[in-house]
Amino acid sequence: MLSVSAMLHASNNMPFSSNILVKQAVQELQGRLPPGWYLSDVRIEESRASGIDAVATLHAPSGQAGRIAFETRARLVPKDVAGLVEYVHARALQVQAALIVVAPYLSESTRSRLRERGVGYLDLTGNARIIVPEPGLFIETQGAAEDPDHENRVARSLRGPKAGRVVRTLIDRKQPPGVREVAALTGLDAGYVSRVLAFLDREALITRVGHGRVQSVDWPALLRHWARDAPLESRGNVQAYLEPRGLSSFVKRLAAVEQHAVTGSLAANVFAPVAPPRLATVWIPNVPEAAARLGLRRVETGTNVLLIEPGDAGVFVGATHQQGFCCAAPSQVAADLLTSPGRGPAEGEELISWMQAHEEEWRR
Asked: Which of 8, 39, 91, 255 has its CA 20 to 30 A from that of 347?
């Protein structure tokens, strides 16, 4: 049996960075094991034939034992998860070991794709999900939500109005647009659009031909990622009001307001009715003026109307007249609901399900 130090000393053919990551991964995992559990036989020799960086034996207090295969990456982006799993998972099965991917940091999108494929992971910030069927071990912990190595961080955020315009354009169009078309449709610089597309490609939210034309868009995943990066309250100034005469009265008077876009539960009910809405959420350019015109009362509790002054006019793109008011596009409504209070997230998911079943009705 080799100790970790002995293993590292003996592994002359192993890259230094992988060597260090294996050592750190073993130490991290040992620190997370329940009392009575331990690792032994951390070997490099066996992994040379299998293409895996290291294999260790996991011992339970009962005397049962299982094997863990470590595959290290200095960096792993979502786009590369499928290829990594396809290449390495079969080799882990050959050596009868549970596979764990190790990296200094793994983003939420990367971890999600590893979970979908039944592959364990461990990063050095504390994010871990380790499942070893024999002898029966399950560990799941949360670490950093963002890469602490800011200088080498690959990811960019979809936060901000310009990113939102690109996202909406990609989601709402049946045929994936190219860089120049997105730039023309959004009024944005082509260089900025290209950088956003490169990020979306790395995150496996779109696929491209080489580094060029967009081939396909995973719009449900893209919509959820955008909602997470740019929650509703970050995209506008939200003010709470009470309409004492109820939502029906509010909707009738809203028709007289020239520019508005209803979102949230009231809009979702247009596309996929689930339950009578109790809250009206509306994008509107000048909230104080609109509130006065609509006769609304500013309140802290008992709210039934939310007026949002948008940070960008993109929220009005694709809005249509429905049931006596102007309704925001389904993609905008779904994103708004996913980070809304109460039943909002559940209603957002229900709307996404409707959108998946009725793409011909809303994608242009």
From this structure: 255
pLDDT digits (tens, 9 = 90+) for 153-191: 444 689 999 999 999 999 999 999 889 999 999 999 988
Q: Where are the domains of the chain?
A: 4-150, 161-229, 232-362
Q: How many helices (H) and strands (E) does the chain have?
A: 15, 16
CA distance 315 to 328: 7
Topology adopted by domain 161-229: Arc Repressor Mutant, subunit A (1.10.10)
Token pair recorded at residue 319: 């809005």
pLDDT tens across 210-269, in order?
Answer: 666 899 999 999 999 999 999 999 999 999 999 999 999 999 999 889 899 999 999 999
Cβ-proximal residues to 228 (8 Å cutoff; 6+ apart), any chain = 108, 338, 339
Gap between the Cα atoms of 265 and 280, Å rounded: 7
Other CB atoms within a 10 A radius of the CB of residue 226 amount to 26
**Two tokens at 269?**
């009910």
For strands 65-72 and 98-103, give the pairing.
parallel
Helix, strand and coil in the chain, % to nearest 5: 45, 20, 35
Largest CA distance in the chain: 80
